[in-house]
Amino acid sequence: MPKGFAPDPDLIRRLAAILEETGLGEIEYAEGDRRIRVARPNGVAAPAAALAPAAIVAAVAAAAPTVNAVRSPMVGTAYLSPEPGAAPFVRVGDRVSEGQTLLIIEAMKVMNPIKCPRAGTVSAVLIEDAAPVEYDEPLLVVD
Hints:
Blueprint: H1 9-22, E1 26-31, E2 34-39, H2 53-63, E3 69-71, E4 76-79, E5 95-96, E6 101-107, E7 110-115, E8 120-125, E9 131-133, E10 138-142
Helix pairs in contact: 1-2
């Protein structure tokens, strides 16, 4: 455990609630070099669990802190890479600079690059590739 790491009890409770809601066996949240993993005993998932990855990402995003979130400036479809099969613009742990493209949002057949508002480190990606996004929805976190 990193020196000075004080786990947030509310975050742990929210992650545990996600386990209950989704039926997952375990969930992990990372922020920089700090990680919190919440697991059911023996990693046993609830028997009726069958959620699409988008539902799981949405549930995790709801639990993630969004203080330093980069939010969607529009409604559209978010793409994490410049083209299908290409590497994503950024990954968790990447250092980013102000003005760097983080992702693109397609709106009305126009590809709109979403630029980083400040330099920092990507600590969470809160959406899935090709996911529909709403105005002001948190997309990723740059600390």
